Amino acid sequence: MRRLWLIFAQAVTISLAALFVLSTLKPGWLRESAPAAVVAILEAPAGNGSPAPAAGSYSAAAQRSMPAVVHIFTSMTGASPNHPLQDDPVFRHFFGERPDNGGSQRQAGLGSGVIVSPDGYVVTNNHVIEIADQIEIALNDGRKLSAHMIGRDPETDLAVLKIDTDAQLPVITLAGGDALTVGDVVLAIGNPFGVGQTVTMGIVSALGRSQLGINTFENYIQTDAAINPGNSGGALVDSAGTLVGINTAIYSRSGGSLGIGFAIPVSIVRNVLEQIVSTGEVTRGWVGVEIQDITPELAQSFGLRDTRGALIAGVLRASPAERAGILPGDVLIAVKGEPVRDPRAMLDMVAALPPGHKAEFRVVRGESELDLNVEVGRRPTPAAKR
């Protein structure tokens, strides 16, 4: 039996060798005499080496959005930190001779950004470029281009840059609106710790996060997609690869991701982008009041039915609110007929009002409700940190 098996194996080996020689040297002979099944195998097209994406893969979304996410390298001239004893003649030799550069040195930083238009506009975080005097953009394909700042909005931590080139650039697609729901899959794309472009996946953990003390205007998307230093200004995209937010901050005790990251929604990004591109700045309404939450205890002391509204804790002198007759202790319950739920909603509603126009503010004062016409002013621009 063993001898028969050896004879069979040798015959198969010789037959395969003959088939290989004929198919290589005389393929025509083989096709003329071979069965149809063998010819079909020989003429079958070769694969391209790129298997179809596995079920549940988000590679299409990543490939669609990754080219438009860039690395941002910034540099600035800052004061050179000197040791207190460096200028003492007795101890100077311990520090060596250092060149006199006017007490300054180059400092570098990095972050991420997203190309949002074919003519080279890039959205990133304000804190990425806030103190930079030189900005370089590294594209996903390896190109490095200079850029300059068009405008910034510290109160939402957004900034708009313009790449200095006429070359064609990849562009990300902005989502149509804030249509995310808790549980939706999202991808975070950026340059964490400068290691290179990285994609992480997670879900939308919460929406409308505020009162975090990060910025003046807060309405964050919370996600557990890993966001680390260097991801700031990068893209948060949905499962179709469209931009739903700009990654901006993380909650961390160690500096690394703990699964709690925050992104600015695309609706805020679009509004800030359009204003900066059009005018170079963001204009918001302002009335000049200090506000605070209404606790159950405050509601009881003011005789209010519930905690809805915003308590006027202070009124700035010569402000639009003072001129209109708003007083500390008033409770703002409506703006232009729209109910005020809480101080954050009031801040957003006032910011959306056009400066120079009048708006009706309804306040509770004692046991009465008053309608006061306020001529909205322009919100002061925060001072630059330089």
Automatic annotation (TrEMBL):
<keyword id="KW-0732">Signal</keyword>
<comment type="similarity">
    <text>Belongs to the peptidase S1C family.</text>
</comment>
<feature type="binding site">
    <location>
        <position position="157"/>
    </location>
    <ligand>
        <name>substrate</name>
    </ligand>
</feature>
<dbReference type="InterPro" id="IPR001940">
    <property type="entry name" value="Peptidase_S1C"/>
</dbReference>
<feature type="active site" description="Charge relay system">
    <location>
        <position position="232"/>
    </location>
</feature>
<feature type="domain" description="PDZ">
    <location>
        <begin position="276"/>
        <end position="342"/>
    </location>
</feature>
<dbReference type="InterPro" id="IPR011782">
    <property type="entry name" value="Pept_S1C_Do"/>
</dbReference>
<dbReference type="GO" id="GO:0004252">
    <property type="term" value="F:serine-type endopeptidase activity"/>
</dbReference>
<dbReference type="InterPro" id="IPR036034">
    <property type="entry name" value="PDZ_sf"/>
</dbReference>
<dbReference type="Pfam" id="PF13365">
    <property type="entry name" value="Trypsin_2"/>
</dbReference>
<dbReference type="InterPro" id="IPR009003">
    <property type="entry name" value="Peptidase_S1_PA"/>
</dbReference>
<feature type="binding site">
    <location>
        <position position="127"/>
    </location>
    <ligand>
        <name>substrate</name>
    </ligand>
</feature>
<keyword id="KW-0720">Serine protease</keyword>
<keyword id="KW-0677">Repeat</keyword>
<dbReference type="GO" id="GO:0006508">
    <property type="term" value="P:proteolysis"/>
</dbReference>
<keyword id="KW-0645">Protease</keyword>
<protein>
    <submittedName>
        <fullName>2-alkenal reductase</fullName>
    </submittedName>
</protein>
<keyword id="KW-0378">Hydrolase</keyword>
<feature type="binding site">
    <location>
        <begin position="230"/>
        <end position="232"/>
    </location>
    <ligand>
        <name>substrate</name>
    </ligand>
</feature>
<feature type="active site" description="Charge relay system">
    <location>
        <position position="157"/>
    </location>
</feature>
<dbReference type="Pfam" id="PF13180">
    <property type="entry name" value="PDZ_2"/>
</dbReference>
<dbReference type="InterPro" id="IPR051201">
    <property type="entry name" value="Chloro_Bact_Ser_Proteases"/>
</dbReference>
<feature type="active site" description="Charge relay system">
    <location>
        <position position="127"/>
    </location>
</feature>
<dbReference type="InterPro" id="IPR001478">
    <property type="entry name" value="PDZ"/>
</dbReference>
